[in-house]
Specification:
The complex is a heterotetramer, with two copies of chain A (about 220 residues) and two copies of chain B (about 220 residues). Chain A is an alpha/beta fold and about 220 residues long. Chain A is about 20% helix and about 30% strand. Chain A starts with 6 loop residues before the first helix and ends with a strand. Chain B is α/β, with parallel strands linked by helices and about 220 residues long. Helices cover about 15% and strands about 25% of the residues of chain B. The longest helix of chain B has 10 residues. Classes of the chains: A alpha/beta (about 220), B alpha/beta (about 220). Chains in contact: A-B, A-C, A-D, B-D, C-D. The interface between A and B is large, with 49 and 41 residues.
Chain lengths: ~220, ~220, ~220, ~220
């Protein structure tokens, strides 16, 4: 029941036009090898759901520079002027989402919830075109769940079943994305024997992981 | 003392022992250098840690421990790490005592705009909208003007970050408190007159009979 | 073979290699004893663990590792523990391949009632409503009748657990599949006739030309 | 900045009539010492939010037997006939909530969300009197957030600041309740020096914990 898959094969499962969630925060805790291989295989027309696009030509910024991205859902692109330029030029459609709302929308997609009720964004441009609902006399936006065809995530340690542990701020969006995609491909710094990760330190359970790629060969 | 130092030192005085505090990227992060002696403040970084502190020395940076800008950082004993979902539960859920954010504009209603200039600069809101909606106290730390033009306006003309009224605005010239009645001038910086602050501000300021001078450590 | 053993053995055949499975308290837990050889099934306990298995020997019970009934249990290598919020993200979010639940009533629409008898017995729904709403496949494992009265009815008269149609009903007499057209009789138990099943069932059963006999290991 | 408080003092902060969240699942991972002290101090008219009431006279069942509970919000009382009897006799008002909805309602209370959108309970008696909302053509119940005056929780290990770690199925509702109450009182099996719990194993951050009581003297 090992989930270990060769890098090229794992990434080959992703077709052009797919919707991908990619973990990481300014490149920290992103699946670098999977991203590099997506670029190498020349994937295009991707929809990316991620916190940010890192810096120009770095990490998710490589996909931006390669012109592989058609649509982006993110909370922050301030440190990647290439993304902003492609957005202003109309090459990429960008949906900017408050970071906490982005996290909750992904969570709702993975947790089988119908949406997120949040006060964040009420009365701002973020609220445009969205349902609102009053609960106990207060108004909340109804933010819809997000799901993806694939989640590309990065872990510190994995066991062969696909149980995952993360490290400090490299955790960020990885655990929540692992629950919100049809297929989950995880890149891990280390793959250890089953039973070596104590159950209380398993942060992503093996049953949701489909393919496991080692960070280095 | 330069503008940023004045702002950072004054903001630091607002932090209390045991507070959980989030600092925006840029100017606000300077605040950590000027904390009052003898208090312990827990700094949250929105990317997933409480107990963040600057790197103590060169050579100890780790890939998996950075601040929200991706810069290596370190942590105090007793720090805790968590994912982005939990990070924003803490922020949105009212667990954060203070957030200190930069600003592009603040207006007479105390509303803040700090996340985009349409057609020009579209950084995105990152965590700012959740921080302003959810923190118990929102402090805006910004220069009073930009290239000579006031940033404290009658009405923001950039997209708002939140409709929530911020709690305090600290600039290199003044400390201003948004209230039901409008913006109250609480303090002026050393060597700055009330008239100078009023001249640099588009919004109407409510000026009490006496306006004390900011008291900053040297 | 007694009633419960028949049911448990037949349900066990429905589980596939790699499945994530939740078993309700009582009869469904017997299923673990009859898994087909050579397959690995991950059992989730709603109180917070995947990889649950029965205690292997006396003397190794631990206070912090129990099943949903509070009974000490053990775990396989590769198990993972989590809190109640995460447990129900997995259940509600469609990550659970199969849930096996007991039933008080099932009706022609394939709807299940299994959490209360008004005025008499009010155990509460626990996780049952989420399990039926969220699992990919819902299997009801129950005796065909209670004190001689049918439990498979035209219409449930006890409060429903969910409006979702369950996927399979396994009793000591039969295997029944709810479909758009109604309840289809898939199998009868060894030594049981179609007529006996129909007589013990209030709901209308759709009976195919040939109804195979349940094949169970000895 | 130690949060350690004497048992009697910590529990004395809870007035009659208070709303309490109490962690645990069938008594596993419940704050046994805090419960015993509540009974000893004769607290009454309590509203309890908990998964269950354990068994008769055990754990939360002690509060039921003592007649301390006026109102109960729980998912399951099937293994405590005393609770069912008090409910049928009208001594306790009981609100039964599906377990996943209970967890999410508490989470919403702690996460600043306006409510929970779930398909669980749609079309059943659970839906009576509740708002519904359609999102992407599907109907969901709007379940309101839950908060409490106090959360009484149980941890495996704590440090003196109040960082908490949990153990296996003793975790259950404890971490989520720690975020959803005005005052959090934690009982810990062991209180260790600050810095001893690795940051990645801190599951409840110290800043939300108000008082810490050792499990044994």
């Amino acid at each position: 029941m090992s989930k270990v898959t060769a890098l090229e094969q794992a990434v080959a499962k992703i077709p052009d036009g797919a919707t991908l969630m990619i973990g990481g925060f300014m490149g920290v805790g992103s699946p670098h090898r999977l991203i590099d291989e997506l670029v190498r295989q020349g994937r295009k027309d991707l929809t990316i759901i991620a916190n940010d696009t890192a810096r120009p030509g770095v990490d998710i910024g490589k996909l931006i520079r390669a012109g592989a991205v058609k649509r982006l859902v993110a909370s922050h692109i301030g440190l990647n002027p290439e993304t902003q330029k492609q957005m202003i030029d109309g090459q990429i459609e960008v949906e900017l989402v408050p970071q906490g709302t982005l996290a909750e929308r992904i969570r709702a997609g993975g947790a089988g919830l119908g949406g997120v009720l949040t006060a964040t964004g009420v009365g701002t441009t973020v609220a445009e075109g969205k349902q609102t609902i009053d609960v106990k006399g207060k108004t909340f936006l109804v933010e819809e769940p997000l799901r993806a065809d694939f989640a590309l995530i990065s872990a510190w340690r994995a066991d062969y079943y696909g149980n995952l542990s993360y490290e400090l701020t490299a955790r960020n969006f990885n655990p929540v994305m692992a629950l919100a995609a049809d297929t989950v491909i995880a890149e891990a710094g280390e793959i250890v024997p089953v039973g070596l990760i104590p159950p209380d330190q398993v942060e992503t359970v093996s049953v949701v992981v489909d393919h496991l790629v080692a960070r280095s060969n | 003392m330069d503008e940023k130092t004045i702002i950072a030192k004054r903001v630091a005085q607002e932090l209390k022992d045991g507070n959980l505090v989030n600092l925006g990227i840029g100017l606000p992060t300077l605040v950590t250098k000027y904390l009052p002696a003898g208090i312990q403040v827990f700094f949250q970084s929105e990317n997933g840690v409480i107990g963040m502190q600057p790197l103590p020395e060169p050579g100890v940076a780790a890939d998996a421990l950075t601040d929200a800008g991706g810069t290596p950082t370190s942590i105090i004993p007793g720090a805790g790490a968590f994912d982005s979902v939990t990070s924003f539960c803490l922020i949105r859920g009212g667990h954060l005592d203070v957030t200190v954010l930069g600003g592009l504009q603040v207006d007479e209603a105390g509303q803040l705009a700090n996340w985009m200039v349409p057609g020009k600069m579209v950084p995105g809101m990152g965590g700012a909208m959740d921080l302003v909606s959810g923190a118990k106290r929102v402090i805006v730390a910004m220069t009073h003007t930009a290239k000579g033009a006031p940033k404290i306006l009658k009405k923001c003309n950039l997209p708002l970050t939140s409709v929530r009224r911020v709690d305090l605005v600290v600039t290199e010239l003044a400390v201003i408190q948004p209230t039901d009645e409008g913006l109250v001038l609480l303090e002026v910086a050393d060597g700055v007159t009330v008239e100078q602050v009023v001249a640099a501000t588009e919004a109407r300021l409510i000026v009490p009979a006496t306006v004390p001078t900011m008291q900053l450590a040297a």
